[in-house]
Amino acid sequence: MKTQLTKKKPEKHLLRPLKSKAGRNFSGRITVRHRGSGVKKMYRVVDFGQEKIDVAGKVVALEYDPNRTAYLALVEYADGSKRYVLAPDNLPVGGEMICAADAAIKIGNRAALKNIPVGTEICNIELVPGKGGQMVRSAGAVAKVMANEGKFVQLQMPSKEIRKVPVECFATIGKISHPEYRFENYETAGAMRRKGWRPTVRGSVMNPCDHPHGGGEGRTGIGLRHPKTPWGKPAMGVRTRNRRKWTAKLILKRRAK
Question: pTM for the complete prediction?
Fold first, then answer.
């Protein structure tokens, strides 16, 4: 809950300027529709890999991050340095955490997958050893250790997909904070605009020349077996993953769509 957050300004040395892209790519073309405007915000530098190995740290604050759905924990280490890390759920202010290969199985600690027991809930998982957490980083997300076999650990992802990850990779114990995010409602159009979302028009209320769902008299259906994008491509439920991707061989069971 937001009542658990610490009332303080963010750490100035961990802030970076963030320019709004408004849904455009490097060439200026809109690749994500309905984005733009919004309140200016600064980027918080997050230590996804927790570079301070074998150094205990103390959680001095829990903070809101406008750039992601999860909360951040401000950790102060023994040498006086401070880092932002993704805050696991139920991590208290004043609690201690450590990143070590054989760290204790406690919420907030970060350990190697080979030393995490089967059935443990984890988050912020590495795909490549030393690269930092890349998976299971959004609010309320959690994965589970299913098996430990040789060079790989089998994990059940939030989508129920089961995949193999090298045992040398690190992961954080617990699930990501702010699990109630999925139930929050911004309630007003102005709140959505401040978040950077522009108005969205349904395709079924457009003209046929503007959208495949458009046309018809009154409130009619889309007139198609499957929904489509404004450019006629299949949408909503279609598989988009490239089967030639190198990580395909690490997926034991695909998620059910």
Answer: 0.85
